[in-house]
Amino acid sequence: MRVALLFLSGRVILQKDLGWSVERNSQKIIARLKREGFEVVSIKGSHHKLRRGSQTIIVPHPKKDLPIGTALAIAKQAGWNASDKS
């Protein structure tokens, strides 16, 4: 999700959607990564480590709504963009 944020005293006071979104549900993110060839190689506490070749992505789980920055970072690491939400 691309958003514009307006901060006041360290708190978000305005959030505006700029047109696309990213999945924030950790279960759906892990399922998509598995479909794309990633395998769960370890689970430590509430974090799943998935690997495909030399690429490793760590996803906090279970979490219904990941923080937007975390979800965007996972999407970027996986090579996803706005048009491939599936």
UniProtKB/TrEMBL annotation:
UniProt source species: Rhizobium esperanzae
Domain of life: Bacteria
Keyword Membrane: no
Family label: Belongs to the HicA mRNA interferase family.
Coiled-coil annotated residue ranges, if any: none
Keywords: Endonuclease, Hydrolase, Nuclease, RNA-binding, Stress response, Toxin-antitoxin system
InterPro entries documented for this protein: HicA_mRNA_interferase, HicA_sf
Gene Ontology terms, MF aspect: endonuclease activity; hydrolase activity; mRNA binding
This protein's name: Putative RNA binding protein YcfA (HicA-like mRNA interferase family)
SUPFAM superfamilies, alphabetized: YcfA/nrd intein domain
Pfam family, one: HicA_toxin
